[in-house]
Amino acid sequence: MVLEFFQWCETVWLGRVVVESLWLFPVIEAVHLLALSVLGGAVLVVDLRMLGFGLTGRTVSEIARNAKPWLMGAVIALIVTGIPLFLSEPTKCYYSPAFWVKMGGLAIALPFTFAIRNRIAAAEPVRNTARLQMLVGALSMALWITVAAAGRWIGFS
Amino acid sequence: MSLLAYAEWLAATEGSTALRESLFMYPLVESTHVLFLLLFVGMTVMWDLRLIGKVLTDVPVTEMADRVLPWVRAGFVVMVVTGVLLVYAIPVRTYQSVWFRAKVIFLILAFLNIWYFHAKVLPNAATWDRDVKLPWPVRRAGLASIVLWALIIVAGRFIAYNWFDCDIQPQPGFVNWFAGCVVPAPQ
């Protein structure tokens, strides 16, 4: 079933266009990396603060509010560039453990970031939530690093 | 010794050969180089966006410099260490890569921008630190930095592709000149 879906993806025109071009894959991949860098800044500036580093003179909620549009923009750019990259080699992705680690990580990281982390970050830090913030910041960092590392590893398989 | 001869000598050393032929070390170093984009370029972008006035506008630039730039510097140290190792593993092809050479040029420009900002612009921060709209030299530095680091990432990624490699001939004259290819004269 899943394999058949991936094999069907192989026939989608967008993926074919990418495969047949010498330049499209590298260019889209480079834009994917640029968006990854922006994501890194927007995630880390908040996570580091949750762990008690970086802009410690500011509240977590202030930093999170400022970073949010850049986080959203980066995620959208990553998805928009990620889809044609995937469509250019869906069968390879199906057989790549790194691809599944990345998608599994993403399936946790996205709802974790936009539901749980945003709520925790918006709360003003009183003594008890500070420890919870540290935990959420560490988890967020670990999740996004896993997604990025597994993403890079798809290329090695 | 020319740089090319030096690169050829380096490629023949035991360490370079071991790293180049390693099953896991090379991909590990390469992945670390890519992953630290998250920290190094990520935090750089946040800093640049602050200079442009697009993020954290309530935070004075001097406070950003104190609290954010140490993370940029830490990330940069890892970038340099892993980057040097990547060149060390594949010295000749990298030295003759148009993308690597473009990346070095962009890096030099990025550093001139950083030097100018820290030498000439940031020392006057007291006069504009809390302005809603920062003076043009400050915004210009942020904008130049974002553009240059983006170009550095793209050029760096393209080093992996062999479109313009010296061993793929014929290439346009400009490519052979810019890459420093040693092309035998046609018979």
Describe the structure.
The complex is a heterodimer of chains A (157) and B (187). In chain A, 83% of the residues lie in helices and 0% in strands. Chain A has 157 residues and is mainly alpha-helical. Chain A has one domain (25-84, 95-154). The mean pLDDT of chain A is 93. Chain B has 187 residues and is an all-alpha fold. In chain B, 71% of the residues lie in helices and 0% in strands. In chain B, helix 3 runs antiparallel to helix 8 (136-158) and helix 7 (98-121) packs antiparallel against helix 8. The longest helix of chain B is centred in the N-terminal third of the chain and has 28 residues, at 25-52. The chains are: A mainly alpha (157), B mainly alpha (187). The interface between A and B is medium-sized, with 35 and 33 residues.
Strand and helix map with partners:
The complex is a heterodimer of chains A (157) and B (187).
Chain A: H1 2-9, H2 13-20, H3 24-50, H4 60-87, H5 90-94, H6 97-122, H7 127-154
Chain B: H1 3-12, H2 14-21, H3 25-52, H4 61-67, H5 69-89, H6 91-95, H7 98-121, H8 136-158, H9 173-179
Helix pairs in contact in B: 3-5, 3-8, 7-8
Structural key phrases:
heterodimer; A: 157 residues; 7 helices; 83% helix; elongated; B: 187 residues; 9 helices; 71% helix
> Helix/strand/pairing class of chain B, anyone?
mainly alpha
Q: Biggest β-sheet of chain B: count, sense, barrel?
A: none
Count of discrete alpha- or pi-helical segments spanning 4 or more residues of chain B: 9
Q: What shape does the CA trace of chain A take? A: elongated
The best one-word shape of chain B is: elongated
Main beta sheet of chain A: none
Cα radius of gyration of chain A in angstroms: 18 Å
Number of helical regions of chain A: 7
Report the average pLDDT across residues of chain B: 94
Q: How much helicity do the residues of chain B have?
A: over 70%
The N- to C-terminal Cα distance of chain A equals: 23 Å
Class by SSE composition of chain A = mainly alpha
Distance between the termini of chain B: 29 Å
Oligomer: heterodimer
